[in-house]
């Protein structure tokens, strides 16, 4: 039977490409989203992938949503923590609220979602978790103290949890995208974006499909020996 894969923020942007690539790889995919009903409806109509609306930053909502999805679709065996936001500002203007929102949505969500699926995956002795980090979590980026901290946190979270899950064949990895052509990046001013592209050796922005390919690779049944690693997909922008 096809394994159930849940992709948070899976109905648009990078998440949509991940959902569709996992579906093409034979997974029974479920996507979640925060509030963009129109995008969710259009996505479901186009792909047949069901979408569930809940806030990944809300612990109780994540517990309830996972219970509902597992009752309606089946046990979640692949989890992709992709949902994320930016609230950019230089430190001088970075408010406590902007800090909290980004930490809760980008990093707190990984705890909330992993916590909700963890016991089930370990009991069944199979699980594939991928957390979506960022090149800006690896290298830092001015104006993104909150985002870089959250994404950097994801990389430590991934390595620690990978050690806990390994014995039960539950792998935990991260993918760190570079700049990818989605709405998140289209919000960056044009002149700033031109400077960013100039720093990417491959000479273009990433495509959502470039990231999805890495997620399919890390979540394959055969990928058991890869855990606690970060796959950088950034056109050579940052290497280490
Ligand atoms: P988009 O802004 O295009 O999409 C974000 C998705 O996350 C949407 O589906 C959105 O739902 C969902 N989402 C946001 N907040 C919440 C929430 N509180 N609860 C549930 N779902 C939520 O983002 P991208 O596709 O560009 O980015 C996807 C991931 O990749 C993010 O983690 C991002 O940080 C990371 N990334 C992106 C890069 C890029 O260049 N684009 C580079 C590096 C990393 P809704 O549609 O309902 O708002």
From TrEMBL:
Keyword vocabulary terms for this entry: Oxidoreductase
Q: One of this protein's GO BP terms? A: monocarboxylic acid metabolic process
- Which InterPro entries did the record assign? Acetoacetyl-CoA_reductase, KR_dom, NAD(P)-bd_dom_sf, Sc_DH/Rdtase_CS, SDR, SDR_fam
Q: Name one GO molecular function term.
A: acetoacetyl-CoA reductase activity
Q: Which GO terms describe its cellular component?
A: cytoplasm
- The UniProt record lists the Ketoreductase domain at 3-183
Keyword Oxidoreductase listed? The answer is yes
Source taxon at top rank: Bacteria
State the family named in the UniProt similarity comment for this chain. Answer: Belongs to the short-chain dehydrogenases/reductases (SDR) family.
What name has this protein been given in UniProt? Beta-ketoacyl-ACP reductase
Q: Which organism is it from?
A: Falsiroseomonas bella
């Amino acid at each position: 039977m096809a394994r159930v894969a849940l992709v948070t923020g899976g109905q648009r942007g990078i998440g949509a490409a991940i959902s569709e690539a996992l579906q093409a790889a034979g997974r029974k995919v479920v996507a979640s989203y925060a509030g963009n009903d129109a995008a969710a409806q259009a996505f479901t109509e186009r792909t047949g992938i069901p979408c569930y609306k809940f806030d990944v930053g809300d612990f109780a909502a994540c517990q309830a949503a996972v219970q509902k999805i597992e009752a309606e679709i089946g046990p979640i065996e692949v989890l992709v923590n992709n949902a994320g936001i930016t609230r950019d500002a230089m430190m001088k203007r970075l408010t406590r609220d902007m800090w909290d929102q980004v930490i809760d949505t980008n990093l707190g969500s990984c705890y909330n979602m992993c916590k909700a699926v963890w016991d089930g995956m370990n009991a069944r002795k199979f699980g594939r978790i991928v957390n979506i980090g960022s090149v800006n979590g690896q290298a830092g980026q001015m104006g993104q103290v909150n985002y870089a901290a959250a994404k950097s946190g994801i990389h430590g979270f991934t390595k620690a949890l990978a050690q806990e899950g390994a014995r039960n064949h539950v792998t935990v990895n991260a993918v760190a995208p570079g700049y990818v052509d989605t709405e998140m990046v289209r919000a960056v001013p044009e002149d700033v974006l031109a400077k960013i592209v100039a720093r990417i050796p491959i000479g273009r922005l990433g495509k959502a499909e470039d990231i999805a390919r890495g997620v399919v690779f890390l979540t394959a049944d055969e990928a058991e020996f890869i855990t606690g690693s970060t796959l950088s997909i950034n056109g050579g922008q940052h290497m280490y």
